[in-house]
Design brief:
Elements (H helix, E strand, L loop, with lengths): L1 E4 L5 E4 L2 E4 L4 H5 L14 H4 L10 E2 L24 E3 L8 E8 L8 E10 L4 E2 L16 E2 L19 E11 L12 H8 L3 E12 L12 E5 L14 H15 L16 H6 L5 E6 L3 E6 L5 E5 L17 E7 L2 E7 L18 E10 L2 E9 L8 E9 L8 E4 L16 E4 L1
Antiparallel strand pairs: 1-22, 2-3, 2-21, 4-5, 5-8, 6-7, 6-10, 7-9, 10-11, 12-13, 12-20, 13-14, 14-15, 16-17, 17-18, 18-19, 19-20
């Protein structure tokens, strides 16, 4: 793990994981590593082209070309392989290879669901529920290779809920047997071995979508995690002259290795906007009947309350707080939340400033079982020339539990001149 030590920033302890709060949220969302390769998926039939224009006709008694893959063949069902048949290959055919690839992701290397090879040349079909053993008795001599999980045999699809993926069942006629060790015969190894041996190929395509459970649109309970993006950006905000200077001061301090000691950086609460628009940590939503909603983020001091059965308190009863006075109501399936009195904090994130006049309106909607969208609008007559809106997406994490989070400000140590004694460095642990 690499920890970034930043002058004036508090240190979070979440469970057994210690992380310094990142100034650049985008970098934190990537986990500090290189992003996964992206681009159109490249099928095995492209990587191992046939020597001739002969096409194998591939069919299934379980689904039609371009049809839906029945749930029984998915991980949501029995996770068994579907029946496949194909036309006989050229007379030189010694063996067949069958692969199943998910071509629905934005990644050049499609997800591998099945690799089975050295199917005898006189066999032109596979039954339902081919065993997942590495060595098969039927068809005799056929071998199961490794799927994306590095396990032997067929692995059914289970794409994210609400997303339909196409699954390509590809068949290759070869002029040789591959003889690979099934313990290491993943898709890459099989494709490399069968190049220049493919006499003909063909495929049948079926689509599958993980069904969504029934859910109540007004029920927001659960653990949710922001899906990248959505944070307010300084370039989208028209600052007033006074706050343009404050923002530039923060930028300059950060460049000098002495970042502005914002609220959470000194172990104070993150604040409403930071909680709802910056990722890294999950949050949990609780609903107390139809009168109150509580949001708790996995960072110290972050309990946010929305009242559904009252209006804003009178101005003389409001105190400047980090989460403000929030009142909400339902407009159809959208929860509209209006928040004022946010003067305890002074930044949206580590750099973008706001004043005690900050006013936030959220339009929160559970658009699918596992997805919430939140349109967040900020308005600040003292700091911004006009309102700014961003849209944030959260994904349900049904198996997650929030860990305990504490904050220690031991790094915020000043010398006699009032300057931080810890500068921005990078150390490995």
């Amino acid at each position: 793990m690499t920890l970034k030590t930043i002058a004036g920033l508090g240190l979070f302890v979440t469970g057994l994981l210690v992380t310094a709060l990142a100034v650049d949220n985008a970098q934190a969302q990537q986990g500090g590593g290189a992003p996964a390769p992206q681009g159109p998926p490249v099928a095995a039939m492209t990587l191992a082209p046939a020597k001739s224009a002969i096409k194998l006709k591939v069919t299934s008694s379980a689904f039609k070309e371009g049809g839906k893959l029945p749930e029984i063949y998915s991980q949501n069902g029995k996770n068994i392989s579907p029946p496949l048949s194909w036309s006989k290959g050229p007379k030189e055919t010694q063996s067949y290879v069958v692969m199943t690839e998910d071509m629905g992701g934005n990644r050049p290397d499609p997800v591998t669901h099945w690799v089975i090879y050295d199917i005898p040349g006189n066999v032109t079909s596979l039954p339902t529920a081919v065993p997942t053993d590495a060595k098969l008795e039927k068809p005799a001599g056929a071998l199961n290779g490794l799927n994306i999980r590095k396990t032997s045999g067929y692995m059914g699809p289970k794409p994210p809920m609400g997303v339909t993926h196409p699954y390509h069942f590809e068949v290759f006629a070869l002029d040789a047997k591959l003889g690979l060790d099934p313990a290491s015969a993943d898709k890459k190894a099989v494709i490399a071995a069968m190049k220049d041996h493919v006499l003909a190929s063909g495929e049948i395509i079926a689509s599958y979508e993980t069904p969504q459970p029934d859910y109540e649109r007004h029920d927001l309970t659960g653990v949710w995690l922001q899906q990248g993006g959505g944070a307010f950006r300084a370039k989208d905000i028209a600052f007033t002259p006074e706050y343009a200077k404050i923002y530039q001061d923060h930028v300059d301090a950060n460049a000098a290795g002495n970042p502005y000691r914002h609220d959470q950086g000194v172990c104070l609460p993150r604040g409403l906007v930071g909680t709802m628009t910056t990722a890294v940590y999950p949050f949990e939503i609780f609903q107390r009947g139809d009168g109150e909603i509580l949001i708790n983020k996995e960072t110290p001091g972050n309990l946010y309350r929305i009242f559904l059965k009252r209006q804003h308190k009178p101005a003389d009863e409001l105190a400047a707080t980090f989460y403000g006075d929030s009142v909400g109501h339902w407009e159809g399936n959208t929860l509209v939340v209006d928040t004022v009195s946010l003067g305890a904090g002074d930044t949206l994130d580590a750099q973008i400033p706001h004043s005690d006049a900050l006013h936030v309106v959220q339009r929160i909607e559970r658009v699918t079982y596992d997805t919430i969208q939140n349109q967040v609008t900020i308005d600040d007559a003292k700091a911004y020339k006009s309102p700014v809106t961003t849209t944030v997406t959260y994904k349900l994490k049904p198996d997650w539990e929030l860990a305990e989070a504490v904050c220690t400000n031991e790094r915020d140590v000043l010398n006699e001149a009032g300057e931080p004694t810890v500068k921005a460095t990078e150390t490995a642990q």
